[in-house]
Amino acid sequence: AAVVVLVSGSGTNLQALIDACADxxxxxxxxxxxxxxxxxxxxxxxxxxxxxxxxxxxxEFETREEWDAALAGAxxxxxxxxxxxxxxxxxxxxxxxxVFGGKVVNTHPALSPSFPGMHGPAEALAYGVKVTxxxxxxxxxxxxxxxxxxxxxxxxxDGDTVETLHERIKVAERGMLVDSIGAMAREGFTVEGRRVxxxxxxx
Length: 203
Ligand code: GRF
Known about the structure:
Number of strands: 9
EC number: 2.1.2.2
Protein name: Phosphoribosylglycinamide formyltransferase
Order of helices and strands: EHEHEHEHEHEEHEE
Helix content: 25-40%
Shape: globular
Radius of gyration: 16 Å
Function: Catalyzes the transfer of a formyl group from 10-formyltetrahydrofolate to 5-phospho-ribosyl-glycinamide (GAR), producing 5-phospho-ribosyl-N-formylglycinamide (FGAR) and tetrahydrofolate.
Largest sheet: 7 strands, mixed
Strand content: 15-25%
Bound molecules: 5-O-phosphono-beta-D-ribofuranosylamine
Number of helices: 6
Enzyme class: transferase
Mean pLDDT: 96
Strand order of the largest sheet: 3-2-1-4-5-6-7
Catalytic activity: N(1)-(5-phospho-beta-D-ribosyl)glycinamide + (6R)-10-formyltetrahydrofolate = N(2)-formyl-N(1)-(5-phospho-beta-D-ribosyl)glycinamide + (6S)-5,6,7,8-tetrahydrofolate + H(+)
């Protein structure tokens, strides 16, 4: 299965996928990496792996909708079976979802529906939860609200800072992402309401 990954930062989730794809039995390969900004480690990781990259900054476009359409076009050029938003810090819009809806998954560093948005680990720590984690979901028009593919639980440790907690979450998150993308690539998946079912549709 062809996978396009969109990143905005360090790309440790991307790196985990790149490493997993080296195993020919994994069933997926990262065909391109896109970003909303240049000069990030995520793009450097792709370049080191010889994977094509593209960068589309919102401020290069007159409107957000034009950026969204351009992003859809850039991703469509690689004809992906799955689009992975891994630390991508922009909300994809209606045009993008119209083109790829149902094939776009996003990983979030909290246990949905808790703590959606940009500060999941910080909000979990501030709330005082004893368990948090990571969620992989199929992107819908909401913010971190789509049907859940997988979740991994992570203990919050006394003395945790946002950074130590987020690093612990990211260990679980990349394992969840690698296992899930591999299964989705090998078995196929379909979204039925709020359920994501693994396995190809029987003709
Ligand atoms: C991940 O935890 C992701 O869920 C969150 O930010 C982090 C990005 O990490 N949005 P990386 O860029 O994959 O290292």
